[in-house]
Records
---
Amino acid sequence: MLIWVISLGLFTLFFGLLLVFNPKALMKMSEGLNQMIREVDTQVMSNRITVGVVLVLLSVFIFFYAAKLGVR
C-alpha cells in the first residue's frame, strides 16, 4: 500500500512541476497521448464484444482473488 501512495505522490509531483515550469512539454505529451488513445478507441470499438467479455472475466477473476486474499 505504501508503494502506491509514494507512486501517486511522485506522479502528481511530476505533472505539477511540468504545469508550473514547462506547460508546453505537457501540451506536447497530451497531443501525443490523444492521438494514441484515438487509435486504441477505434480498435476497441471494432472489437467491443470481445473486449467487453474479456474485461468482465478479468474483473470476476480480480474479485475472486481479492476475496481469497481477504479470507487469509
---
Amino acid sequence: METYATHSLSPDEWRLVTTLREVPVSALKTRVNALVEALLELAREPRCPEHQADGVPCQSVHANCDQCAQVTRMLESLEAMQLQMRGFPGA
C-alpha cells in the first residue's frame, strides 16, 4: 500500500519529479532512480570517510577533500555531457 504526503514543491522540484515520472518503466529508469537517489544522498549529507585531526569525520559541504572534489568532477562531467548533447560541442 502506497502512502502519499502533501508538501509544497518549488517549480524546480516539481519539474524534477515530473521528469522522473515521464521516464518509461524499464531497467534504465531503475538505474536513473538509483543514481538520482545516490546523488541526492551525497548532496544532502556529504561525509568524508577520512577522520580529521580531531578524530571526527568531516561533515562540511565546503570542505575541499578528495571525495568532495571527486563528486564535483563527476557533476562537471555530467554538465559538459548535457551541453554537448544540446549542441554545444566545446563545452
---
Amino acid sequence: MRSMTLRLLALAVVLFLASPAHACRFAKDAQPEHWFEWASALFAADVTAVAQDRQKPIDVITVSVVETFKGPPGTFATLQVPSRMWASCLLEKPAVGARVLVALNANGDALLVPLTAPYTDLLRQHVSAMQSNPAPESDTRKGSARPPP
C-alpha cells in the first residue's frame, strides 16, 4: 500500500512539473490553428501598462486591443500573469508599446506572447479560411469533440 501511495505521489509531482513546460512549449511553438482551438478569445494588442501586484507574484498587464481574431470585440483588457512565467518559459516580459498576441481560454487562463507582422498575417489567413470553410457541428453523442492539443 505504501509503495502505491509513493507511486501516485511521484506521478502527481511529474504531472505538476510537466504542465508549465507544456504551456511554455505551446506559447512558443503553436501554429494559428492551435491558438484558435485553445482560446475562447484571441486578439492582437498593444501593451499600455505593466505593473506588479504587491500582494501576489503576479504581473498586471493592460493592453489596448488592435485586432480581434476570435471572441467578442473589445477595446482593452487587463491581464494577470504569474510573474514566474517569463523566466520559466524563457519569454521576455512585454514592455509598454509592445505588440502582443493575447489568448484567453474558457478557464480564465491567459497566454501573452510577442506578435510579429508575419504571424499576424498567418492569423488573418486562418480567420479567412475558417470563414470560407466553417467547421461542421461536432456530434458530442459520438464523442467526436476533440480536446485541445
---
Amino acid sequence: MAERTTRSHLKDLIKDLRDQYGITLEHYRIHQSKSFHISIVASAAASLSMSFKTGTSKQLHMIVSYASESKSHIQYMEGGVITATSGTQKTIYNRNRNSSRVSTVLENKSGSYVADNKILQDATVSAGTVLAHHQHWGDKKAGIGRRGSSEWKLALDTVYSFLLTSDDGSKGLHIMLNWYEI
C-alpha cells in the first residue's frame, strides 16, 4: 500500500510541476542528477557503434538519435557479448553539470565489467537480438524521436549495442544517447 501511495504522490507532483511550471518528467530527472548523455561522431567511417551493459539496480529509459551524411541504417541490439578489451572508452556526461553523480552503465575495456562512467565505441560485439532496424534514406537527416514514442526502457544486466552503418562508403556518422536512470 505504501508503494502505491508514494507512486500516486509522485504522479501528482509531476503533474503539478508540468502544469504550474512547465517542467516535464525528463526535465525533473535532470534536476535530480539522474539524466545522462553521450554523443560520438566519426567524420569518415563505414560504421560507428556504441556498446555497454546495463547495471543490476537502475532502470535506463533511453532515446537513441543518429545522423549520417548519406544513406545508412542503424540497428539496436540486445543481449550480445562484448569482446573484453575491445573498443575505445568514451565518457558519459551527467546533464546536471553541478552534479558529480555518475551513470550505472558498465563497460569491459579492462577485461571485466566496471561502472566507470564510460561507453565503448566500436567494440567487437557478438550478435544479439535486433530490437529495431531503421533505414535512413536521405542526406544529412537525423533519426531523432520524441520521448513518448521513441523511448526504450532497457533490461537490467544486459548488453546493448547501437550500430550505425553507412550504405554509401565512408561518410560522416553520428550517434547520440540520452537517458535517465531510476
